[in-house]
Amino acid sequence: xxxTARRLSxxxxxxxxxxxxxxxxxxxxxxxxxxxxHDGHRSLIERAAATCDEVVVSIFVNPLQFGNADDLxxxxxxxxxxxxxxxxxxxxxxxxxxxEEMFPSGPPAVTVDPGxxxxxxxxxxxxxxxxxxxxxxxxxxxxxxxxxxxxxEKDFEQLTLVRHLVSDLGFGLEVIAMPIVREVDGLAMxxxxxxxSEAERIQATVLHRALRRGxxxxxxxxxxxxxLEREMATVVAREPExxxxxxxxxxxxxxxxxxxxxxxLRLLIAATVGPVRLIDNLAVER
Amino acid sequence: xxxTARRLSxxxxxxxxxxxxxxxxxxxxxxxxxxxxHDGHRSLIERAAATCDEVVVSIFVNPLQFGNADDLxxxxxxxxxxxxxxxxxxxxxxxxxxxEEMFPSGPPAVTVDPGxxxxxxxxxxxxxxxxxxxxxxxxxxxxxxxxxxxxxEKDFEQLTLVRHLVSDLGFGLEVIAMPIVREVDGLAMxxxxxxxSEAERIQATVLHRALRRGxxxxxxxxxxxxxLEREMATVVAREPExxxxxxxxxxxxxxxxxxxxxxxLRLLIAATVGPVRLIDNLAVER
Lengths: 286, 286
What we know:
homodimer; alpha/beta; six-stranded parallel beta sheet
């Protein structure tokens, strides 16, 4: 029998549980999710369970981070299955607040400003997205007060933002990054993949192929960002049903633009495949 | 002999002290200050001491909230005297981080956006001020994790902002407001008063006189905001050395503009007297 996580649906219950953990000196890990859990989330929860006494998995489809009402409406929801996956992976608490509970007076007046990440890459393509992420993550940190929090590298800009949020605003907690979990053909796991048709599912592998092509030409000596971007775009163009948003390289610590393709780089890509926008990235050391 | 507060100058020491308070279930009160403590601060610290087991007084002249480098440079500093006042009033810890400690990489990239308070009243007159306040207060909350925090009503917009910061971002703590402490002639206590000449010190009482005049004409039946503002401005105009910034009324819960002068109102005033900008306010129930 798999262990069962406690489901808490109100902030008050969560705060009480947290206070109890504090009294018993239990180290708390937080895995913040929007549900529709897959093997990527599983790896975060398992890692948290291996290093913390209590593992809180939050499931909240955050309206603040959706610019597009359609994307919010279609975002997959499967709470019973999520509770099972979370429990099996080692969660001790699943925190599932309602929107009414999180934002009783509607959108908050005071928010967290993501600074440069508001307009960079994902921020640039999805106005308000990064502010929504920063605000909800700060609020979840305040409610659950984790000692450690676990984020996947798939949302690499989100991970970078969370690191800066934690250091700039003095949240005294450790941010643990976990590698992207991929399907056998290379597609990065994402809750959004469920919305792809069979044909689109195959086309979607072009994101990962473009990233590998980028990594290869850097290995072969390419030092020019424009050339790299053109090469990656050429790979994507071979799938006419896939609309590229960006394919580029950034410095991996703060996502600044590299003058030359040297040092610790991250290749990042975003494209729309059928009804969904997908993202992926790859580390390259040079 | 007066009890002696422990002085902690690093975030690490403060976080350790806070963890120790948590283990011993000590209720923690925070009084966030920029030093130059006066009787207004004293009332906050004494109130905190009466209701909390541990009282942290933070002293940090926050560069983020000064738009004007001159104002920052001239802001009064008197750390030895402050330690004595804090101790006498019941502080158990005085937290005095350096700027280097609080912002090791310079101004933070991720900040707290004060929303409407960015451009309202003080926010409008001092660009960046409210964002600087919101960001430092959030960081101090994260470092000291108070159960209760005590703010004076003198900085009424700051108090309103802090209330929204706490509810919107889910800081689980109680915000306690304390009344303005005044000199015998009505001047609101402020660290900036120390910079007034003898003549300016007398002129400065016009702020409080204008507020009282405003309260009186509302009592006498005035319901029109424009008329109220003109009357208050007329009082200030009698002191030709005093430059009025604003004299107005707002709804006291969120500082929205009243359609008619009814309900729970706050009269607010700001003016420059000699080298300093002073603010004051007064509650009016109608």
